[in-house]
Amino acid sequence: MTVRTEEELADALKNDEDTIEIEGDLKNKTLRIKATGKVAWAIAIGAIGVAIVGITYPVPEPATQGFSKSAAFFTVAGASSVLGVGATSTAVALAISAGGVGVLNKLRSYKIIKKTDKKIVLKRG
Fold first, then answer.
1. Is 125:111 a contact under the CB 8 Å cutoff?
2. Torsion on CA atoms 65, 66, 68, 71, rounded to nearest 10
3. For an engineered disulfide with 51, which of 60, 61, 75, 120 has Cβ 3.0 to 4.6 Å away?
4. Could you tell me which residues come within 8 angstroms of residue 65 by beta carbon, excluding any fewer than 6 positions away?
5. pTM passes above 0.90
6. 109 burial via Cβ count (<10 Å: 0-12, 13-18, 19+)
7. Summary mean pLDDT of the chain
8. 45 in Cβ contact with 105 (< 8 Å)
């Protein structure tokens, strides 16, 4: 399956595609996510998880809603310091599209079997 957007990549991962070809700018952001070390990844995925909760779940009190959303964006800033802004925005979009951060761990379990200037090919490992 060939993907060019975060939504397409999230769908491919949710469907457990055996092989995924990633093209365009998404290729570089995906490489950045996959290249992050284990300790840094644990920090980044924790921050992204907290941010996803803050962004996607409604807060019952309007007075605290602004604080909750602001806190989510500050948490994303922490992940950005690990992954970079582009990869963090991709990770957040993947998690939102797939309904949770589990998709990010699934992405990291795929192996890169081919890498060119235009695309990477991932294989479910």
1. yes
2. 180
3. 75
4. 58, 59
5. no
6. exposed
7. 84
8. yes
